[in-house]
Amino acid sequence: NNSNRKYNFSAGPAMLPLDVLEEAQKDLVDYKGTGMSVLEMSHRGKDFMSIAAKAEQDFRELVNVPENYKVIFVQGGASTMFASNALNLCPTGKEKADFVTTGAWSKKALGEAKKFCDAGEAATSKESNFSTIPERNTWNLRDGAKFVHICENETIGGVEFKETPVGLPDGAVLVADHSSNYLSKPIDVNKYGIIYGGVQKNIACAGMGIAIIREDLIGNAAPNTPTMLDFSTHSENESMYNTPPCYTWYISGLVFAKLLSEGGLSAMEKRNQEKAKVLYDTIDASAGYYNCPTDLKYRSMMNVPFTLAKGGDVEKQFLKEASDAGFESLKGHRSVGGARASIYNAMPKEGVEALAAFMKDFQSRNA
Ligand code: PLP
C-alpha cells in the first residue's frame, strides 16, 4: 500500500516515479526469474550487462545523442566532473577555460577548475544576487579558451538557460552542468562538447553521474590525471573499468524506458512547463504575498524559489504547516532562506496543484 507517499519537493535526492519504484519492488528479490536481486548481481554477468546496455541505448535514443558522442556512467557525482572536465580538456594545466557564474554550482565548478587550468570568470550575475543570467553579448570570452562552462539550471537560485549559448571562440567547446534539469526537455547535443550531471534529481537515486562527451575530447587528459577521472578509462571500458553503481544504473534504465514510452523529452517538457506555470502563476497572482526573486526570463522549470513578504515567523509557520500537510522538504536552501519547490520530472502535476491550493489557502488564512 503506497497511499502514504508524500509529495517530495526536495532538491535532491528527489522523488521517483511511483510506477518505477513499484517495478523495482516487484523485482527486488528475484529479478525476472534470475534468482538474484539486481543489488547482488555481478556487473560482468550477462543479466546486469544487458540491463546496462539497454539503459545506455534508451538514454541515447531519448536524448538523441549523435554517433560521435560517447555516453559514460561515472561515480563521484557532478562535483567530481568539475575536476574531470578541466583535467581532460586542459592537459598542460595552462590552457584557459571560461566560466559563466550564475549561482552556487557554477561558482563551485569554477573554483575546482582553477586547481587544474587557467580558469576565469567570463561573466557573472553576482550583482543581482544570482537572480538572472548575464546576456550572451556581455560575456568576456578569451581567445584560445578550451572550453566555456555554464550551469544550465542553478538548483539553489532557480535560474535556467532558455537557449544554448552559441558563438564561442574558435576551438572552445561548451561544457554544461545539467544536474538539475537533465531529461527535462529536448536538447541539441551537437551544440555541446560535454553535457554532464548527477542522476539523483531528475533521473534516479543517488550514486551516479552521466556524461555525454564528444569523441575527440576523449584521450587527451593531463598525464597525472587519476585513472578514474580520465574519460578514456570509462569510454574504453563501457563504464565498467571498476565496479559501477549497478542499482542506480538499473533504476535509471527503468526511468529512461518510462520516459520513452510516454513520448520522450518533448512530452516531458510540455508537462514540466505546465507544472511550473501552476506555481509561478500562484506566486504572481498573490499580490506580493509570495515573491519569486528570479528574473522572469530565466525562471527555472525545475526549482521554484519563493519568499513570503511577511518573512520570519510567518514563513516558519508556512513551512511547518506545509510539512504537516505532507509537502516534504519545501525549505529553501540555507544560503537563501525562504521556500523552494523542486518539481522535477517525477513530481506529478497533482502534487504541484495541491501545493498551489495550499499556498492560496495559507494566504487567505494569514493575509
Ligand atoms: N551541479 C548542480 C546544478 C547541482 O544541483 C548539484 C547538486 O546538488 C551538483 C552540481 C553537485 O552534484 P553531486 O552531488 O552529484 O556532486
UniProtKB/TrEMBL annotation:
What Gene Ontology terms describe what this protein does at the molecular function level? O-phospho-L-serine:2-oxoglutarate aminotransferase activity; pyridoxal phosphate binding
**What keywords tag this UniProt record?**
Amino-acid biosynthesis, Aminotransferase, Pyridoxal phosphate, Serine biosynthesis, Transferase
Question: Which reactions are catalysed by this chain?
Answer: O-phospho-L-serine + 2-oxoglutarate = 3-phosphooxypyruvate + L-glutamate; 4-(phosphooxy)-L-threonine + 2-oxoglutarate = (R)-3-hydroxy-2-oxo-4-phosphooxybutanoate + L-glutamate
- Cofactor(s), by name: pyridoxal 5'-phosphate
- Region of the whole protein represented: 79 to 445 of 445
Superkingdom of source: Eukaryota
State its Enzyme Commission number(s): 2.6.1.52
Q: Lineage in the entry?
A: Eukaryota, Viridiplantae, Chlorophyta, Mamiellophyceae, Mamiellales
Family as reported in the entry's similarity comment: Belongs to the class-V pyridoxal-phosphate-dependent aminotransferase family. SerC subfamily.
Q: Which GO terms describe its biological process?
A: L-serine biosynthetic process
Instruction: Tell me if Amino-acid biosynthesis is a UniProt keyword of this record.
Output: yes
Species in which this protein is naturally found: Bathycoccus prasinos
What are its GO cellular component terms? chloroplast stroma
The protein's name is phosphoserine transaminase
**Where do the Aminotransferase class V domain residues begin and end?**
7-355
Pathway noted in the entry? Amino-acid biosynthesis; L-serine biosynthesis; L-serine from 3-phospho-D-glycerate: step 2/3
Q: Does the keyword Nucleotide-binding apply?
A: no
